[in-house]
Amino acid sequence: MKNIEKLLEPLNLIYYEYDLKENKLLLDKNWEDENLFSELIKVTYALSNNNIKFFIDENRSIVIANSDSIIHKIKRYFKSLITHIKNSRMNIYILSDKKVKWAKNLPMFDIKPIKQEIDLSNYDALIFTSKNAVYSIDKIDKTWKNKPSYTIAPQTAKIIKHLKGNLKFVGKTKHGNEFALELIERFKHQKMLYIRGSETVSDIVNILNSNNVVCEELIVYETVCKEYTKKIKLPKNSAIIFSSPSTIKCFLNHTTWDESFKAICIGKTTAKYFPAYITPIIADTTSLEACVRKAIENY
Prior knowledge:
Layout: H1 4-8, E1 16-19, E2 24-27, H2 34-49, E3 54-56, E4 62-64, H3 70-88, E5 92-94, E6 104-105, E7 109-113, E8 125-128, H4 131-140, E9 148-151, H5 154-162, E10 166-170, H6 176-186, E11 191-197, H7 204-209, E12 214-225, E13 239-242, H8 245-254, E14 262-265, H9 268-271, E15 281-282, H10 288-297
Parallel strand pairs: 5-6, 5-13, 8-9, 8-11, 9-10, 11-12, 13-14, 14-15
Antiparallel strand pairs: 1-2, 2-4, 3-4, 7-12
C-alpha cells in the first residue's frame, strides 16, 4: 500500500486526522461547516487519483480498505461493536469541556478575558497557539480576520476557519518552539503579533526575534482554576488527559494523585511541567482525540 501519510501531507488537513493503527482518517465531528466538505473532497480525490480504495463509515471517517467484500464488512461491524463495549467501560477523563468519544469531561479551569487596545494594522500577520486566544481577540477587534493567521495545530485552525479568519499556515510539528522554527523558514522580515494567554510554555517570541522575524505579543486572556467544594475522587486506574500546564496545576490542586492513574499528555512541552512523581505518556499528535486513543492503548 502507498504511504498514506506522505500522500496526505500536502493537503494540510485540519478536520481529518490520519490514524495509522486504524488505517483511517478520523473526522472531528465537533465541526460542521462548508470547509469540512471541501476537505472531504480533497482527501477522496487524492485517494482515488492514487488508486487507493476507501469507504466512508457511519461516523463519516474515511477508511482505507483493501477489500469491500461482505465478509470484511461483517468483520468490521463486529470489531466496531466489541471496541464500543470495551472502550465504554474505561474511565478516561479530559480536563476540559470538549466532547471526545469514549472520554468523560472534567473541566479544570475558566478563561478570563483581558481587555486590550491594539492597532492590528501595524502587523503583517498574527500567530495563534490556542483556541482561547482566537476567541478572545475576536471579542476585542474584529479586524483580526483581515490579517493572515499562522497557527500551531489543526485544533486552533478550525476555530480560525469557523470565525471566518484568514488562515494561511498550520504548523507541521505542532509543538511550540519547533513551530517558531517553521515560521522562520517561511516568513523572514515580517512583523508579527503573537496573540496568547497570560501563561505560555514556549519561547516563540524570542526565537523569532533572534532570527530576523519581528514579533511582539499581546496577552488577551488568563486561565483561572475552577473552584470545587470537595476533593475530586476518581476511580482506580483512571486515565487523565492533560492538554496544558494549567490542567496539570489545577487538577493537582483538587485531587491526590494515585499511583494507579495514567497521565496522558498532549505534547512534549506540556510534559515538562509534571512533577517528578508523574511520568506522562505523550500522544502521537497534539489533539484531544489522539490523547483519547493513546489512553485506550495504555489502559
